Amino acid sequence: MKRFFRGLGHYLVFFLMVAFLVTCCILLFTSALMESLGIVLTGENLETAAKLTFGNVILLSMLFTLFDEMRRKLTVERTARRIAEAAKRIVAGDFTARVERPSRFTNDEHFFEIIDCFNQMAAELSGVETLRTDFISNVSHEMKTPLAVIQNYGTLLQEPGLMDDKRIEYARGVADSARRLADMVTNILKLNRLENQQIFPRTEKYDLGEQLCEALLQYENVWERDEIMIETDIAEEVLVDADRELLWLVWNNLLSNAFKFTPAGGMVRLCLTAEENHAVVTVQDTGCGMSAQTGAHIFEKFYQGDTSHATRGNGLGLALVKRVVDIIHGEISVESELGIGSAFTVRIRRAG
Predict the structure, then answer these.
(1) Which residue segment(s) compose the domain that 38 sits in?
(2) Residues 103 and 51 in one domain
(3) Are residues 275 and 171 in the same domain?
(4) Which of 46, 87, 275, 325 is the most buried (most CB within 10 A)?
(5) Share of the chain above pLDDT 70, in %
(6) Most confidently predicted of 13-27, 197-211, 269-283, 308-322
C-alpha cells in the first residue's frame, strides 16, 4: 500500500509538470500560428485540441513515472538494498560482509564513495574484532597459568607441619607468579593506552648515549650473576628530540629480552652510531635466535616464539616497543639466526 501511494505521488508530480509544460507550449504555438496565418480557432477546434492534449499529458506522465521507477530500482534501490543487507550482517556480527561495486553506467557516482567507505569501515571493524577476540583469548590464557600456580602453592602452604625450606619454596613460587601477573597487567594497561589514546609525546632534547648507559646499568647484577660479557660502542653527543619516558620503554624491553635469551657466558652488545639525520641503536645478543617464521610475528601481542622462557615474560614487551617506535615515527628491524643470536636495530631522527 505504501508503495502504491508513493507511485501515485510520483505520477501526480509528473502529471502536473507535464501538463504545465505542454499547456505553455501549445498556447505559445497556437498564438504564433494564429498571428502569422490569420487563423481563427472555433470552440469545437479548441475542445478537440484540449482533449488530445489532455490524453497526451496523461500518457506522457505515465511513461515518465514508469521510466523514473525503473531508474530508481536500477540506480538507487538495488544498491541501497545491498548496503542495507551488508550493514545488517555486520550488526549480526559477520564482519566479512562487503558491498560489491555496481556498474558505473547504472549508478550515481556518489554511491561508489559510500560503498568504498562502507567496505573500508567493514575491514577496519573486522581487524578490530579479530584483535579483540585474540586479545581476550590470549589474556585469559596468559592469566590462567600464574593464577593456577598461585592457587596450587597457596593450597600447599596450608598443609600442617610444612618444612621451612618447602614453605620458602612455595612462597617464592607465589611471589614470582604474582609478580608475573602484575607485570602482565601493567604492560596490558600501557599497551592499551598507547593503542587507544592519542599520544602526544613530551619531547625534549637530550643525550641518547647517556640514557642507553643508564638503561644498561640496570642489568649489572644480571650480567655479573650469569657471567655475560658486555660490549658497548656508544657514540658521544648524539642528541635526539624525543619523549624520554617512551624511549625508556624501548631500551628497557630490548635489553631485558637480550639478557633473558642470552645463556651464561654469552655476550650482549649495545651500539649507538650517528648518521646524518638519524641515531641508530643496535641491541645484539648471542642467545638462541629465532627462525624467519618467528621473526615475522615477534611484534604481535602475546606472541612468544621461545616457550621455554614463557615464565619470564608475557609476549607484550616487543608489542610495546613497536607501538612506541611508531608513535615517535622511528623504524625498528630485527636480524636473527637460530643458535647464533638476534640483533634489534632502532632508527630515530636526530635533533636538529
Answers:
(1) 2-107
(2) yes
(3) no
(4) 325
(5) 71
(6) 269-283
Shared domain for 188 and 214, answered yes or no, is no
The CB-based long-range contact list for 300-304 (8 Å cut-off, 24+ gap) reads: 301/134, 301/135, 301/138, 301/191, 302/134, 302/135, 302/138, 302/139, 302/141, 302/142
d(CA 56, CA 242): 78
Does 36 score more than 50 pLDDT? yes
Contact in structure between 272 and 288 (CB atoms under 8 Å): no
HSE, CB side, 13 Å, CA atoms: give it for residue 338: 6
**122 domain residue, yes or no:** no
Specify the number of domains making up the chain: 3
Using alpha carbons only, what angle is made at residue 148 by residues 142 and 150, rounded to the nearest 5 degrees? 110
| pTM recorded for the entire structure | 0.50
pLDDT in tens, 194-233: 555 455 567 889 999 999 998 898 888 888 888 999 999 9
Handedness of CA 222, 225, 226, 228 (dihedral sign): positive
Question: Where residue 174 falls among pLDDT bands split at 50, 70, 90?
Answer: confident
Among residues 317, 9, 314, 6, which one has the least CA distance to residue 184?
A: 314
- Residue 43: what pLDDT? 66
Is 238 domain-assigned? yes
290 and 319 in one domain?
yes
| 121 within domain boundaries | no
One domain for residues 207 and 267: yes
Query: And the C-alpha cell for 300?
Result: 604481535
CATH code (residue 314): 3.30.565.10
User: Is residue 207 located within the same domain as residue 192?
Assistant: no
Is the predicted pLDDT of residue 268 greater than 90, yes or no?
yes
- State the pLDDT at residue 136: 62
